[in-house]
Recover the amino acids of this structure.
């Protein structure tokens, strides 16, 4: 007997998670679209973003979930935390590109990816050694406001997560489709050689892609903290790999695809946990990753399979 | 530039004889005596380690380090040799470990029945008397389980490798990562076999002639030494064999490897299976020593640690990989602990609180990350590079001795048995389409045996596409391609080379990090027989085959005078452009082709070099080789070909003698445009 209220609740939870994965997946897709590089550092840029968001909230004197803010104070605190997490993550992403990846421009094969694995390890361990291995209680100033919809409950935090994700993704779409730099990004993703010859500063495009992708990962990281009320040095790998699966499922290189893939993975995670078993969700998600890569590497909305060897 | 021969080099007059002196490596496999002595010394030190150190903790750490060295050797086959980046390699370690764990512990205890009796006689299981009815206790011998676990892991290697065959680079890595994640989760979620997250317990220690290994580290250490020695021997022998060269060819350029006769599916799966087998066997040893197995022992960090080891030591270099693995393990178990101790003591001395609590061993992953990034940025070839430096050429070797095509004989070339009137190659109504673009439309042409046919046409007219279609690198939509009387359309590229069609590429597809000699030996792949077992055991027949192959390689190189011969040991990436063109032709010749497809062989050559090559090509034709040639230099075409075929926009617009084609209106229009004709 399927309980529809429970299912609806899981759909609501899934969309929230999916919004977070989507934000994180965009970072993979932007970088892959332009450089054909799978950026493992992105996992832990996200993780560090969640710590920065936490520290920003703590800086405002918030701790735990009992100090509730309302009205402008809430908006201000959240805005401050989002800006802090996004800016730091964005700058961190750019630093990774400048220090570790730019010297490898033109070196083919899997060198770039192996380097990002190394960078990811460094970021991971800096937080582990610096902040400790224990899970951190995440400050959350959001009041408990709930609406009942068809037997399921929607929290204020859910509405906020959807709203913020929507605004950020809309902003990214507008940036990519309307601005000069956005056009340069699309051109570079299509054919970086041709774009370079047409006068596009490809290095600048790459830096932009890293900044935007990492900043969105920072936003996703804060959402993670506010959603689960904790963070830890460990969160990057699992969330990152799921978001990467989302990017692949949606069609790597496609921003809309990353959003769609994120929502689907979020739904699979919550509904799969509900209908099958939580301990098998990872197997389901990784199987999707493998199956899509092997049988439909262009994903739902992506362009043709990669040509780089 | 005349035909005179420098007596000091003498490569043209008597290639095979002089080569041994100039380049010892061309003679075949040989281990220098100093190297053998070095190996004996290392082995002796390894054997004397336990009695000299006499500290169980250190011997235990060394035994673990040897396990990881064995794993790194396995990963090196997949990543270092075949170039398939595997990020889920620990999965095979897990499979081997759980295979032994399940068959030599108290984990599985099915009820006793008559079915188990034969196994009891073989001493694989024991009958345990229990209150609720007798049960089976699996107690398969450790020594028997090593090959069994290796075989099981190899099976999974093929199973997980097969889906990745069409994938490349990053994508392949991610799929292996996915499998690598799935295996430990499945292990955790099937507690009936693996006891889940708590881990197996009561895994039986090995026994040898009644001696129980127990928990003492020393016997495991010696088994570890034997493992690593055997795996190093195996890896090294494979690397310098037909099998290892096929792997490296795939690593360097998959398309070219296929076009030179390497069966990609077979060799990729072989690499996955071999690598997994190494890991499976090592898993058995590791679990027997630890006497437990938990899913956490086989997660992503283990795969990354092994990757760090081979990147650090030198990907593709057997000694480098082992040294890298041992250094990193020693760093972890000894050096960082000692260093932490010293820093803590220093902290107590100067009374600085935080210095007293530093535990560097917990930062080992940070060090792994730093190693990975700095190796990639500053020394991608690792501590001990896979390719040794080659000596600079002497002046005599550098000055060109031009081969003017005076070759009388070249083994492997000869007249083709002609069937009455049938051309060697016959293409009929061949159509190739890329999406909406028709690259070739109903092309028909025939190449009679022992002739040189030229294929010309403006850029983009479909000449190279025709070559690609003949060699099966692009699929044809309709049509037939008959070679030596048999249909070859639909065969995979390596089969087409086996039939006797070899080619060169317009943009050069040599294996850049392999030497000229190795490139030629890959070219001979289809004509050599050595398999995995032969490569490892090297029976006399294999040794003879290899020596003959190297001799033949030298013979082929001498077609180009001393252009390539003194550079036989150089990586082709270091050759001049013209020499790379020659090396590619030599590689194609090494496959003993009946038909040679040359795609702009003189591109990038100056007039003198062009003339030299033209004479060499004509010489090869005189020796019986049939040649289909794409060429833009019309003097070359006129000089070599009796028959010219002209393509434009994927259609055959004219054919005939060079003179007739040159006057053809269609051809002039294709090259110069309609205006030229009107004027």
């Amino acid at each position: 007997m399927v309980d529809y209220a429970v299912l609806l609740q899981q759909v609501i939870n899934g969309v929230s998670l999916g919004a977070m994965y989507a934000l994180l997946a965009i970072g993979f897709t932007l970088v892959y679209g332009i450089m054909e590089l799978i950026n493992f550092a992105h996992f832990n840029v996200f993780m560090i973003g969640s710590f920065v968001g936490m520290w920003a909230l703590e800086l405002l004197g918030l701790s735990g979930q009992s100090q509730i803010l309302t009205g402008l104070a809430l908006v201000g605190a959240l805005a401050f935390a989002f800006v802090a997490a996004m800016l730091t993550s964005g700058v961190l992403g750019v630093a990774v590109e400048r220090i570790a990846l730019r010297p490898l421009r033109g070196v083919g094969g899997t060198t770039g990816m192996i380097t990002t694995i190394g960078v990811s390890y460094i970021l991971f361990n800096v937080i582990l050694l610096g902040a400790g291995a224990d899970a951190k209680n995440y400050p959350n100033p959001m009041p408990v406001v709930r609406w009942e919809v068809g037997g399921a409950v929607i929290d204020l935090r859910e509405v906020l997560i959807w709203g913020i994700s929507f605004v950020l993704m809309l902003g990214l779409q507008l940036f990519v489709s309307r601005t000069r730099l956005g056009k340069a990004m699309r051109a570079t993703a299509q054919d970086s050689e041709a774009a370079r010859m047409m006068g596009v500063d490809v290095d600048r495009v790459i830096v932009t892609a890293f900044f935007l992708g990492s900043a969105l990962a920072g936003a996703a990281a804060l959402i993670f903290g506010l959603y689960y009320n904790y963070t830890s040095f460990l969160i990057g790998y699992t969330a990152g790999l799921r978001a990467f699966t989302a990017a692949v499922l949606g069609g790597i290189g496609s921003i809309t695809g990353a959003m769609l893939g994120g929502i689907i993975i979020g739904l699979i995670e919550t509904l799969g946990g509900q209908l099958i078993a939580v301990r098998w969700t990872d197997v389901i998600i990784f199987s999707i990753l493998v199956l899509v890569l092997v049988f439909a590497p262009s994903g739902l909305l992506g362009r043709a399979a990669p040509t780089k060897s | 530039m005349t035909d005179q021969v420098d007596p000091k080099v003498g490569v043209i007059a008597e290639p095979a004889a002089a080569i041994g002196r100039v380049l010892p490596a061309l003679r075949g496999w040989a281990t220098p005596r100093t190297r053998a002595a070095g190996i004996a010394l290392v082995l002796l030190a390894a054997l004397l380690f336990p009695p000299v150190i006499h500290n169980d903790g250190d011997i235990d750490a060394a035994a673990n380090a040897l396990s990881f060295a064995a794993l790194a050797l396995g990963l090196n086959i997949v990543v270092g040799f075949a170039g398939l980046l595997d990020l889920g390699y620990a999965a095979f370690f897990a499979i081997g470990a759980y295979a032994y764990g399940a068959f030599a512990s108290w984990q599985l205890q099915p009820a006793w029945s008559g079915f188990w009796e034969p196994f009891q006689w073989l001493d694989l299981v024991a009958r345990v008397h229990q209150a609720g009815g007798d049960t089976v206790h699996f107690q398969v011998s450790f020594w028997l389980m090593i090959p069994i676990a290796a075989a099981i892991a190899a099976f999974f290697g093929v199973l997980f490798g097969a889906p990745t065959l069409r994938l490349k680079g990053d994508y392949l890595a991610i799929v292996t990562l996915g499998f690598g994640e799935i295996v430990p989760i499945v292990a955790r979620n099937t507690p009936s076999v693996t006891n889940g997250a708590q881990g197996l317990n009561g895994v039986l220690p090995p026994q040898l002639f009644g001696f129980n290994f127990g928990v003492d580290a020393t016997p495991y250490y010696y088994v570890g030494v034997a493992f690593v020695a055997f795996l190093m021997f195996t890896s090294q022998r494979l690397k310098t064999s037909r099998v290892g060269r096929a792997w490296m060819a795939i690593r360097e350029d998959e398309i070219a490897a296929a076009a030179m006769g390497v069966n990609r599916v077979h060799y990729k799966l072989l690499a996955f299976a071999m690598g997994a087998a190494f890991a499976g066997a090592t898993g058995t040893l590791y679990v027997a020593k630890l006497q437990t197995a938990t899913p956490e022992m086989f997660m992503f960090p283990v795969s990354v640690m092994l990757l760090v080891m081979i990147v650090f030591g030198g990907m593709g270099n057997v000694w480098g990989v082992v040294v890298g693995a041992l250094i990193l393990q020693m760093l972890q178990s000894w050096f960082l602990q000692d260093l932490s101790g010293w820093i803590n003591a220093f902290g107590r001395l100067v009374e600085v609180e935080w210095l007293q609590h530093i535990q560097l061993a917990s930062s080992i992953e940070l060090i792994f990350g730093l190693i990975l990034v700095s190796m990639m940025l500053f020394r991608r070839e690792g501590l001990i590079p896979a390719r040794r430096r080659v000596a600079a050429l002497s002046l005599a070797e550098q000055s060109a001795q031009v081969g003017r095509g005076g070759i009388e004989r070249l083994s492997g070339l000869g007249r083709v048995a002609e069937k009455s009137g049938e051309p060697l190659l016959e293409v009929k109504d061949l159509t190739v389409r890329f999406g909406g673009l028709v690259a070739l439309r109903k092309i028909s042409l025939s190449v009679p045996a022992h002739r040189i046919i030229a294929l010309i046409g403006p850029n983009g007219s479909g000449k190279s596409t025709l070559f690609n279609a003949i060699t099966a690198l692009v699929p044809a939509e309709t049509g037939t391609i008959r070679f030596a009387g048999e249909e070859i359309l639909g065969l995979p590229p390596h089969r087409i080379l086996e039939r006797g069609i070899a080619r060169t590429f317009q943009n050069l597809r040599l294996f850049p990090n392999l030497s000229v000699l190795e490139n030629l030996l890959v070219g001979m792949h289809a004509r050599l027989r050595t398999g995995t077992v032969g490569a490892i055991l090297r029976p006399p027949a294999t040794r003879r085959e290899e020596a003959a192959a190297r001799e033949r390689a030298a013979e082929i190189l001498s077609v180009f005078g001393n252009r390539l011969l003194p550079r036989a040991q150089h990586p082709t990436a270091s050759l001049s452009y013209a020499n790379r063109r020659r090396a590619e032709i030599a590689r194609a010749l090494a496959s003993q082709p009946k038909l040679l497809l040359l795609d702009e062989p003189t591109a990038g050559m100056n007039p003198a070099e062009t003339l030299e090559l033209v004479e060499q090509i004509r010489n090869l034709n005189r020796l019986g080789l049939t040649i289909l040639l794409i060429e833009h230099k019309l003097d070359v075409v006129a000089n070599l070909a009796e028959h010219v075929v002209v393509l434009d926009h994927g259609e055959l617009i004219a054919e005939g003698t060079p003179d007739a084609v040159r006057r053809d209106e269609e051809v002039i229009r294709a090259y110069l445009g309609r205006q030229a004709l009107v004027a």
